[in-house]
Amino acid sequence: MLMIEGVNVTLNSAARVWSMVAISKIFEAPSVIRDQVASWIMSNTTFVEVLPEEAFRIGYRLQLPDITQAAFRILVNELALEEAANGFEPGKPRRQVSVFGRRLGSPDDETVNVIQHAARAFIDRIVKQHHETVAPALFDRLNLAEWDNLRTLEHALEQEEGDPFVAIRRRLRSLMMDIQKSVTSNLNSVLNRCVDGYGDYAHLDKDRVLYTEPKDFKPLRDILLKFNGTQRLLCPIVSATIRNDMTRIINDVYFRQEIEYLKRELQLAVARAPRDKDFSSWGPVLQRIPENVLYQQRYSVREPWFNLGKLRRDLVDQLSITETWDRIKHRFQFALPLTRHMLLTLTDNEMKYLPLWAGGNDDGTGGVFEDFLPPAEMGPNGPGPAYHTGQTLLSETSSVSGSLMDEMEAMRIVGSTVAGSSVARSIDVQDGISTVYRPDRVVALGSSIASESFDDGASEFDRAVWAVPAAHQDVPGLDDMDMSVPRDDDSMSDATITSFGDDFDDDFDDDFDNGSALE
């Protein structure tokens, strides 16, 4: 009440802050305490690291973006580590202690839903980054100027003829392959050696002791040794190890020697070539000698023709996995020193589940939790999720189908209703094929709709039974059958029925007397 009246009330403890937030909720006056609560938490960031669930609820209630984001990062990482170990099991009871020994709070269902979506997106991104990092085409995928120069030289040598150029091309490809193998093999093994290669466990454990109960505390190294590959990727030790070991991965001594060999062979090949030979397609590896310089050749090898150090620096800078630990690049508003062992660098794709005021994309409609749908430029295709997107490819179903299923599938693909259009549309909303009406139209049921039934005794059945076959539908033995087609559609004549019944009785009696009826 004093704060509502404008009286300054000191917030000097977490308990008082929590109490004032609860009271502001009762009085529906969060704006009264927002600035003071934000000031206290920003001066005591340990509160966010030790009690992220409570910090998230406070930030959410008072709409404090920085505090909400910081607590959200911690909660997402903890849940991602847990899910990476056990998989996504709906309804699974949540642990009481995090993988690092912190006692967990009790977030509400709405908060859990937001954190789960972000955690799954976080895992997918980190795993994808790792797969791209260890892919064989890593160097060609990245924008590496020095590597592009080698590729340009390789393509130019492929157009040259003669033994010197063949030898240079062979040595160049060997150098490029050795560099790629050295990087990919070391990156593949980083998940296994990152635990032993990391040397800051003592400081990290010292921070964890401050908020972990003795019975829940385990050395960080022992925890990481039990992690699987995905869990280790969710920790900053992997990216830090890659960044620190890149100098060792691209060994200067070995590769510099190969680079010098290639340089000498390039110089000899250029020197022995005719003076009027054009080497402009070789790229920046060679440089043109000015015309006013008295020199035998018009081109010479640039010095340095290949910069290994620049290639290494560009590789480290462009590897996205090496930037995952950098909190400054991810716009952290304040330091979180007690959580240095956690990977908190979420991207916009993970932060989008937060409300708009917290930097996310959740506007309250729930659309942020749904998958992206293609634009429906041509409108709905009837009831259900079928839409004319204008992007469906034409069907290539053969007119002569090999099976009944092929024919049914071919009947379900229909062309555009727009005259002259060659764009096909999506599969019809109905799963069946109408035998009376157009299959691409949804028809409401009603008494005025003709029946499609084909049951025994129905009018359609009678007409089909007594229909006269066409000329191309000759039935063998039809002429020998003593049948009369009735003129009345509803019933056969009495004479026909009597004749048919007498013949049937006589035949049955003869068969029974001969003993063939039981065979």
Short description:
Residues 502-513 have a biased composition (Acidic residues). This protein is mainly alpha-helical and 519 residues long. It has 19 helices and two strands.
Distance between the termini: 103 Å
Structural class: mainly alpha
**Share in β-strands:** under 5%
Shape: extended
Low-confidence stretches: 394-405, 407-437, 445-450, 481-505, 511-519
Strand ordering within the main sheet? 1-2
Number of domains: 4
Look at the structure and give the mean pLDDT: 74
Overall helicity: 40-55%
SSE arrangement, N to C: HHHHHHHHHHHHHHEEHHHHH
Total DSSP E strands = 2
Q: What is the makeup of the main sheet?
A: 2 strands, antiparallel
Give descriptors for this structure.
mainly alpha; 519 residues; disordered C terminus; 19 helices; 4 domains
Task: Describe the protein's architecture and organization.
The protein has 519 residues and is mainly alpha-helical. The protein contains 19 helices and two strands. The protein has helices at residues 14-27, 30-43, 46-50, 52-62, 65-86, 109-133, 138-141, 145-158, 163-197, 201-209, 220-225, 229-233, 236-249, 252-272, 308-318, 348-351, 404-412, 459-465, 494-514; strands spanning 286-288, 299-301. Strands 1-2 form a two-stranded antiparallel sheet. 21% of the residues are buried. Residues 475-519 are annotated as: Disordered. Residues 502-513 have a biased composition (Acidic residues).
